[in-house]
């Protein structure tokens, strides 16, 4: 009987696997909305805490709801001694994303909350991770610099507190706003690879910490969240704005992907880039100096050259990578910062997946050998 070959959607490109109420990219206007609100407006007028609340609850908080949310988040920021001691024992040769993945797994093992998969239990776990991950990331960067950790401050907002834990001081409001903008833009992006990973794990009715641990693993790769670090390595490798064109030709000839460019969903430019680029421009203006000017000129020159030569546009990681460098973060801390933000989106999706769960289990078209007998020598050695 003739069989029809099923259509293969390698990389699930163009496949719609479920519905979501959390966010969408509106192709006609090339804009991203969280729960219906344009992210440009959210990034201009709101804080990251409000965005996390919006993603989890579907609406922005009123004053009382925000105060309650902030109080609970701030009270959960410290990590206990066991967690800190465990993380301090990890080799400094491991990537900070490995530290974060280990931290989430350990926090899950320690969490006494009953694992009934209920929305209430998952909201509590989500808030625990949102609050504690910045403490872990900041302590890890300081450890690698040979410095003692700085405890979280309940007096400071999410972005300010993280910057204070990293650097021992809260930078100027413009820098804090630039950092907060990046957190808001990174917070959610529908069924991207790491969010889908979290949904796959959740679909088996596994727990939230397992889903987030797996999502961190997916985000680490340079085709996804790891690209913000790869952008910085690339800029430092090129070094001189005059070399951008020559470097690009060599990279394309070697079939290298240009980090921070291209996107599965946006083919005419990432809607988040103009907002982040604007924040980066303001940061560059503040931090003026020969090194900053050289990097900013190179950044602009490479962008111009890649668009002209390949027609591929920058994604959010391109301006965010340089912005984090100029703020003073070590390059390996860039992707963990992405985690601190995307944890809001991942956990919103975990709750949504559980609310209408169906086990995620696609098919594959087999193209290995046909059925054949096992050789007798294998049965009777
Ligand atoms: N450098 C060079 N060429 C590129 C790039 C790039 N960064 N991105 C896309 N292209 C080209 C491809 O070579 C291909 O050209 P061709 O048709 O002539 O072969 C075409 O654009 C389509 O590219 P695909 O790889 O098929 O697009 P896909 O949707 O599969 O890939 C991806 C998207 C993985 C993000 C890709 O653009 C890439 O590797 N970018 C670099 C890594 C990166 O920046 N990742 C961050 C993504 S955003 C985020 O996670 C926040």
Automatic annotation (TrEMBL):
GO molecular function: citrate synthase activity
Reactions this protein catalyses: oxaloacetate + acetyl-CoA + H2O = citrate + CoA + H(+)
Transmembrane regions listed in the UniProt entry: none
Highest taxon listed in the record's lineage: Bacteria
Record has Aminoacyl-tRNA synthetase as a keyword: no
GO biological process, one term: carbohydrate metabolic process
Tagged with keyword Transferase: yes
Active-site positions on this chain: 263, 317
Pfam families: Citrate_synt
Pathway assignment: Carbohydrate metabolism; tricarboxylic acid cycle
PROSITE patterns per record: CITRATE_SYNTHASE (PS00480)
UniProt xrefs under InterPro entries: 2-MeCitrate/Citrate_synth_II, Citrate_synth-like_lrg_a-sub, Citrate_synth-like_sm_a-sub, Citrate_synthase, Citrate_synthase_AS, Citrate_synthase_bac-typ, Citrate_synthase_sf
Annotated keywords: Transferase, Tricarboxylic acid cycle
GO CC, one annotated term: cytosol
Family: Belongs to the citrate synthase family.
The name this protein goes by in its record: Citrate synthase
